[in-house]
Amino acid sequence: MNFELNEDQRMIRQMVRDFAEEKVRPGVVKRDEEGRFIEQLLPGLAELGLLGMVTPEEYGGSGLDAVSTAVAIEELARVCASTAVTVAVTNGVCQDPILRFGSEEQKKKYLPPLARGEILGGFVLTEPGAGSDPAALKTRAVKKGDRYVLNGSKAWITNTHYGKVFVIMAVTDPSAGGKGISAFIVESGSPGFHFLPEEKKMGLRASATSGLALEDCEVPAENLLGKEGTGLKVALTTLETSRIGIAAQAVGIAQGAFEEAVKYSATRETFGKKLYEHGAVQAMLADAATQLEAARLMTYRAAAHKDSGKPGLAQASSMAKLYASEAAKAVCDIAVQIHGAYGYSREYAVERFYRDVRVTTIYEGTSEIQRLVIARNLLKD
After folding, report:
1. Does pLDDT of 246 surpass 90?
2. Which range marks the domain in which residue 163 is found?
3. Which one, of 199, 45, 219, 194, lies nearest residue 142 by Cα?
């Protein structure tokens, strides 16, 4: 078994790390404090091809493999999780479903501007009363002539206010349960499409998140993604892949927090010794390093599984997302503990990492949902 990145993947890691250090890090604290979106970073991200990683070159993208994509997201999250999630969403839950389920006309229309970073995309599934249970969606889509009319409320959408293209799930047949859900490609300028005020979040404060109101929102019939009734399949298949991105984001956050903890332990002195010379601190660092390495390997394994095209991706990605997010939370907790009272201060980066990591066990399927997915697959086998 080969656990090493290949030469191309190592080059991508170094390229993204250099960009993150030179362009992202200088403003990361201020953007977080002000809750200011990463808009000024988008041209640089686009120039590196990071806004079109999952899209093939024929549609204007970089066409990277899943491992390279995970590495890139990890390196961004190591410095700024808000940048990482913005990039992950426009790639993994907007371009990916269009690539997988879209018609050739849809691919040619939407993928090139998304992949080139001319516009951002997003994914619209969650509702105020339907998060972990997508079959409970209330948003309706009624066909009227050559258009669908959408009505409903959506919540917790990433890349709102700045995004231009969104993959939206709505019910076309209320009597069919989960088989009555359909997916649509909707442009943010459509009549009846209204973003709600941005959420005031604990973490990821430099990413854009809000709800969405659809009020007689008209969508051309040709913007149906796939067939009527296949929306739940589109959503679940998309999440199978995108969970690898969340795992990579969690690993990156944990790596950033771990590096801060090691650095602090080498400079802080207590009882006449460097902090890292104390056995208790050494044990904490050892635990953090071990969990971090295990999370990284599980994430890369899931990404490699996707690249292989073999069955079982849902299991691999859920395991990676579950373990990486929970391990990252534990690593960030250790990093704060090693900093002591200073870890509770915004003057130190671990405070931001601690806030940013918390959502990784929640979005794109909570840890509890991942355990259900894993258990069901085990019982199925």
Report:
1. yes
2. 121-232
3. 219
